Amino acid sequence: MPSPSSIAVSHGPARAPVQYPVVAAAALLALALVLRLSASGWRLAALFIVGMALGMSLRHAAFGFTSAYRRLLLYGELRGVRAQLLMLAAATALFAPVLAAGEAFGRDVVGAVAPLGTQVAAGAFAFGVGMQLAGGCGSGALYTAGGGSVRMLLVLAAFCGGSFWASLHMAWWQSLPGAEAVVLGETLGWPLAGALQAGVLLAAFALLGRRERNQAPALAPAASLWRGPWPLLWGTLALAALNFLTLLLAGHPWSITWAFALWGAKAAAALGWDPAGAEFWNAPFQREALAASVLDDITSVMDLGLILGAALAAGLGGRFRVSGRLPARAVAAALLGGLLMGYGARIAFGCNIGAFFSGAASTSLHGWLWIAAALAGNWMGVKLRPHFGMAN
Questions:
Q1: Do 66 and 137 contact (CB within 8 A), yes or no?
Q2: Which helix (H) or strand (E) holds 22?
């Protein structure tokens, strides 16, 4: 079996100096939020810190889903895909015993589970197109925005709009043909399902490693834990461990895009929208979340932590850059990509994190349906990129 270190990638030349103003601003804002969240109990503050660690891991390892799929489709490059296989194998092994028990430290835990339906496939396909036009997925948009990208702020705004828009159509989408959720851990038993899925993922990791030897070798960066950059392996294992920590603390795995639907709905309500006529927003959980502060919502808190963690990592590595002028076609691609991702993620029960990573690690088959449809969408998105002046 090839060494996992073979998935390391090069991050370029020597490190730039630490950007102390960026580091100080991110650290002070993070401290203020931790103090505010601590007033509601330690758990939200802890999840915010986990979100920061996720942002730092994504930024330092330059862990990208969008670029990995594009390079796979265009050049057959396997490093990013192999990293995801290893990440899923590690998360599956960590999740299975806890999900089998149904609780951890006296707190109920549940996996990321959703039905197998038309809406999952359609939403994932739309998301796949959108992520290539946007140049990043949900996690990618957050951590790139944390690094100073103005373009990704446009993507996030459109993402929120698309998620809110889709929430108004959920009843129609849920009326389409579909099947009940299938969870391998419940069907086969958690010991067998966990071992089987992790084993298959590791076998695929090893098999693809043989093909990767024939590709151009990757140069491992000079790694630094705090300043980065990290070998891809570090980010891979960190994301699996932090998703597991999220499961323990939140009672469910890592998710990202619910917050975007909530932020979009709050913005719409501020502009005069009345949620009384919206079926989705009158369900108990959604209604309570809409009435409460975003700082009471776990996903929102973790997303904010991810942005600040990425900003802190970018400042420590001397890589925080505020982007300049945006051509009209770049703006159009950002807005259309964000809109497609937002709409797609809402109807598909999540993005590449909440639906694919967390769903597959929970042994829910909707996670595998999601990635199959999303890869088809990515193929179309790659074909569309040149029409928006985007290089492949």
A1: yes
A2: helix 20-38
pLDDT in tens, 240-272: 999 999 999 999 999 999 999 999 999 999 999
38 class by beta-carbon count within 10 Å (0-12 exposed, 13-18 middle, 19+ buried)? middle
- The CB density around residue 390, as the number of other CB atoms within 10 Å, is 17
- The answer to whether the beta carbons of residues 16 and 319 sit under 8 Å apart is yes
Segment 51-64 shows an average pLDDT of 96
Q: Please report where in the chains the tokens 């391998």 appear, as a residue.
A: 184
The amino acid at residue 314 is A
Ramachandran class of 239: left when φ > 0, alpha when ψ lies in -120 to 50, beta otherwise? alpha
Assign 3-class secondary structure to 192-229.
HHHHHHHHHHHHHHHHHHHHHCCCCCCCCCCCCCCCCC
CA distance 111 to 358: 8
Tokens of 72: 């796979």
- Tokens at residue 73, please? 């489709």
Q: Where are the beta strands (DSSP E) in the chain?
A: 103-104, 107-108, 116-117, 178-179
Q: By CB neighbour count within 10 A (0-12 exposed, 13-18 middle, 19+ buried), where does 376 fall?
A: middle
62 in Cβ contact with 229 (< 8 Å): yes
pLDDT digits (tens, 9 = 90+) for 206-248: 999 887 766 555 555 567 888 889 999 999 999 999 999 999 9
Do β-strands 107-108 and 103-104 pair in parallel, antiparallel, or remain unpaired? antiparallel
DSSP state of 126: H
Give the separation between CA 361 and CA 187, rounded to whole angstroms. 15
